[in-house]
Amino acid sequence: MIERKPGTPNPDGRYVLYWMQINRRLHFNYALEYAASRANELEKPLLILEAVRAEYPWGSERTHHFLLEGMAEHQHELARRGVTYYPFLEDQPGHGKGLLRLLAGKSCLVVSDEYPAYIIPEHNAAFAKQSQVPFYTVDSNGILPLNLTDKAPSSAFNFRRILQNNFVRFFSEPPVPDPLDNLKVATPAVIPTSALQTYPHAGWRLVDRNCFINRLPLDHNIGKLDIGGTRSAGLQRMKEFVHHELNYYAERRSHPDEDGTSRLSPWLHFGKISAHEVVSEVFERMPAGWSFRQLEDCKGKRNGFFRADESVEGFLDELITWRETGFHFCHHRPDYDQYEALPEWAKQTLHDHLPDERDYIYSYEELASAQTHDELWNAAQNQLRREGRIHNYMRMLWGKKVLEWTPDPQTALQYLIDLNNWYAIDGRDPNSYSGIFWIFGRFDRAWGPERPIFGKVRYMTSNSARNKVRLKSYLEKYQ
Ligand SMILES: Cc1cc2nc3c(=O)[nH]c(=O)nc-3n(C[C@H](O)[C@H](O)[C@H](O)COP(=O)(O)OP(=O)(O)OC[C@H]3O[C@@H](n4cnc5c(N)ncnc54)[C@H](O)[C@@H]3O)c2cc1C
Description:
By secondary structure, this protein is α/β, with parallel strands linked by helices. The chain has 21 helices and six strands.
């Protein structure tokens, strides 16, 4: 927990306010758990505020639908359980300004989500300055808390060692499954009338979502997905994957034709499901006698720590090591999205190869509309446009080619951030920056021999992809 605005709780406060910003779930959520415990301690009701602006960086119909689907689910669940929920949707940019301050003014204290990327660090810093009541942010992002590390990890290997040394300790203190289960004060929180008059309850907008979203200043070319922005959709996918598909993860994950990964990143990104519960679900399949408490340091080796088969080891390595390497990086490096934050060796080698001739140069618009000479690349971009995701292997190739086809690495970086964050439903995440900056050498090492344009940065070609992985049906599907 970070005490962003210290002080004693407002004695006249009507409720404890939980401002749900990014970990948009009612279960396995340390921040909500903390807010509920403070409400119990003060013997006050809890008020949950979940708000969405009309306009935000890379805001599209796609992200808005996902968010609102999740809010409609919360409205239903919280009404059933008698917990006061205030869903607010801006209908015009700026119309929500002042709502948080107004609600906080009538609260005992405010709790929100700690998160190291996108607009959340700015939100938290700005609110801490203006809040008249104590304000806390709580990290419910992963297994290892962000304040465990004292600097940005330089590689997944480096972070894996920290993980192996600390996993048992932190996994032994999971968030409670249902933080709303033991709320002492059962009476609803009284929302100030002035708030409801100026900032109407989302109401019908959560029901008639198409009608509402169509009128907003969002990118309407990036359309709704059919995967469902709810926690129940995320849980269903988690169970399908863990109990039926995980066995084949090692064998299938790199082959675009097999599509053998979990596809959980959208729900992880919006905090609909927690990494703790995914890991617990995986542990449930372990053989009798296996216990995570017996896990021991494995000297940072990729395989063996979980004493499981290659599929389980591989999946948990992505979900914990790779995912949290990026979170910890962003936490320690506010410049995580800047070219300058690349390792020195990578910047130097890319600089040395700046004069190299590029066989193809594409504009942002040509890339966005999948108009290149390379059918593999176009297929990946088409998948991104249609489904809001790219198969992981193709995502790496997709990024490497943009570096090759732009006048300089800075332009490539900007194009990749925009393409990824506009179209990907899991975009705008610390993982987005891990993946994109990995294209340019972050978390990687120098490779030889030196190649044109890439220098010592790892190189990938469409031809080698064709030889290495199965992608015939992928190409047919996304051409
Ligand atoms: C250029 C580029 C851009 C990327 N942009 C994003 C992004 O915007 N959002 C995003 O979540 N991931 C991003 N990634 C990482 C990775 O491609 C996705 O996390 C993964 O493909 C999501 O599919 P999945 O849920 O089926 O993964 P699975 O293989 O089932 O893995 C489970 C989870 O582990 C995490 N994970 C898996 N691979 C990685 C990885 N390489 N780095 C960090 N975490 C990982 C994700 O949370 C994922 O949901 C990017 C990678 C590249 C190369």
